[in-house]
Design a protein that fits this description.
single chain; mainly alpha; two-stranded antiparallel ribbon; 3 helices; flat
């Protein structure tokens, strides 16, 4: 059409993170060993004691509340995916 050839975009595992969300995303990534699982095998969520340690070490105190809320949003979405795969 009109002499233009369209190509499919290449699939990539990369994604853009807005600068204001960078600290939240990195905090979430640093929690990769802090997931709690129930006796029946389903993932229940993050261990918030571990989250506090990660935040105390890596997040300025004045940003704790904002990062915590962002991590909770990411946790809820991740739980949907994790528990769906477990079914």
């Amino acid at each position: 059409m009109l002499g233009i050839q369209l190509t499919k975009p290449k699939k990539s595992n990369h994604f853009k993170v807005e600068p204001e969300n960078w600290l939240t995303v990195m905090t979430f990534c640093n929690l990769n060993t802090q997931w709690k699982y129930g006796a029946m095998g389903g993932c229940m969520g993050l261990d918030y004691a571990g989250l506090k340690v990660v935040m105390d070490l890596n997040v300025p105190k004045k940003q704790h509340q904002t990062v915590f809320k962002g991590v909770q949003i990411m946790e809820r979405e991740a739980l949907k995916i994790i528990n769906k795969k477990a079914e």
